[in-house]
Amino acid sequence: MKTQNIQKLMSALLITPEKDFFFGQRIKSRGKSLVFNSMSHVLLQLMAVLFNRRSKFNQYLKGSDGWINFKIGFQTDTESIRQTAVFFNGKMSVIPKIAEDVDVILRFTDEKALLEMLQVTPNEMLGLILKNRMILDGNLAYLQLFNYYVSLLMGGKHRKMTAKAHKTDITERKKCYDQHNPGLSKEMAARRLYHMTAPGTGQTQNQETDPGVVCLPDPYLSALDLNDFPRLQKFHDDYFNIKPEICAERAELLTRWFRENGFEKDNSGKEWMPELRQAMAFQFLMENKKPIIRTNDLIAGTTTTNDTIGVIVYPDAQGTLVWGELGSIDNRILNPYAISEETAKKLHNDIFPFWAKRNFREWVRTHYNYPHCQRIEERWVAYFVWKSVGISHTIPDFKSLLEKGAPGIIEDIIRQLEKKDLNKKQIISLESMRITLEGLNAYARNLSKTAALQARSETGLKRKKELLRLSSICARIPVQPPETLDEAANLLNIAWVALNLENANTGFSFGRLDQLLQPYFVADMEKLTTAAEKEKYTRYAVELVGSLFLRFSDHLPLSPDIGNYLFGGASSTQALTLGGMTPDGRDAVNDMTYIMLKCAEMLGLRDVNVNARFHPDVNSSRYLKRLCEVNIITAGTPSMHNDKAVFEALKQHDYPIEDFRDWSATGCVEPTISGKHMGHTGSILFNMVAALEMTLNNGSHPLMNWEPGPKTGSIENNDFKSFDDFFNAYAIQTEYLIRQAAEFNNLLAEAHVAYRPTPLLSAMMTGSIEKAIDVTQGGARYNTSGTSNIGLADVTDSLMVIRQLVFEEKSASFIRLKAAVDGNFEN
Q: Which of 8, 71, 135, 780 qualifies as a cystine partner to 102, CB 3.0-4.6 A?
């Protein structure tokens, strides 16, 4: 039978389940189980024929390390279907039962869900998991691999389905837009046409308003707009118009190094010290990473090989979750990413097979026998633990890097190594930090060579000078501390690129960038004598900082489509903090504060996520007015924080006053002690509603169709005599889920210690060098984790309704109220 005929037969068998047809026969309810089991077996057998006999499909069964061998089971809750697809040594076979050594089992609520899984597009299949119609039990990477295999067979059908979905989405968006104010876009554009002039402008002294502003005659920079900076305008247009492209460079280089040097054991068969392994692999990565300088850019270096926006692959974390979408990710509705055939092939054949069992989730699953806390989390209902992705919800100590350069930090490490009381692990940790800093230096050297090479072939005199200056800058830093604003900005970007290649960017943040760059701006301005020179350099500083913002924003996380729905399409949430108070209690607003506000106003980027501190007793009304103006123009940036309120929140942790005065935002809006605090504030996303649903159902959860929690009482059996009884039951269910979430969080923390310690981040975090401990093991001066608690308003409202209607007014019985909830209030 021809390939296309077999594919047509598969499509014909994938009929709409509710029609209950199978080979043209009406299914009898009594024999339904047998028929569906036979049907699923035939479908998988047809798939096996295609993969075994057709080279165009069979080639996908092999990776760089040999055949990709795995077993995936399919089972319904009623056990009407029990099948295992076996991929072994280049052949696919089907077993009419669940194999004992299966890698992953997919359990379906009913037969309809299984057939739907075989029909829907790869991104939609994860939606079945989100709705708990398909339950994962095992290695998610292999589920996604099977998903990819199905997409290879059903590609044409999937493309038609996706095109139809896009058409529907566009129609719905237009309908939504027409229902709202159609003049909103014009109003937003008009806001940018008017600029306030700062109060006090024209005075020789403006110390009475912002003491730290010493260079800008008009701190609002009201005469400047994006149109004044053609370079930034081009970068800005590219940022919004070019589709981000998936880049496999990081994954490819690291996989190559680990394949050659070993992951669990080194070439001699000895167990690797994880810190040393990661440091050496990182040094190799930075030495071999392509040094790119974007055309006309003032900042050297890119996170990916794409000079506008690239998408980084972290196969050691969550990267394999997009395996199933390799053929469709460029066409999905939410956050589509471009991907070349070469990159897709590289990820499927060379990279993902190596990491399928080497990632944080699999480490916990294998070392702790797939613990209950992980099983709950992988239902995607009660909580989500970010340590399955990364631990970078923090602010590195950029201040030390700027003040000392990499050699200065290396000297600190060497001094620690000279101490006599260090154990072997501490010595290895310190050596690993040193090695990563050498990798940083190597990347800067390569950028310097690239700039010099480009300068030789450059015909434009202005650009030639810029490239020669970049070559000189990258030759000097980070080998030496920066002395100019140009040098400081480029060092920050080189460090930023390196940090994001070591560790997945989940809320990495910059801290108080205005405080860090102000001394360099002032020093540069002091070298100038005339007002014209200073005005020209101010414009250059705005352009430089704007370029830095766009370079900081040059990458996105590789998120599977389920992540788009769980997290609303959020990016890396890289936070920048401005203004507020200095550690010694003075007004921190300075020239750079206003320059960065101007860049935020002109560029309107999602990242960098600008946060502004305001202390009502210290900061000026002039500063507050400018914050409000920028917020109105951009419709949401910067986020504004009251310093006094944040200080009160931080005091409970007993931080020294100079430290909590030096706080910065990370992630969304969480306060963190700058450069000293490994504070993964969003470590757990906790759904407070899940515990309430479990309380209503005596430990069971209706969406999960499972009883994960303790028995705390039945509404139907009238176990709750008072509201306090019910509230106490809710407290028990909540505490139970908290303990489970915290347990999984801690197990994933162990996985980071074993799989991906971060010696570069450790070298750039106050405390780790002194303790000679990686930050994954508590090396930072301050170490905390926190939760994002979701559904507080829903839970509060629901509890108030129960208290009032059931227990106070007694206007509805608890049984009747629960029945209404269970039936979605129908009838």
A: 71
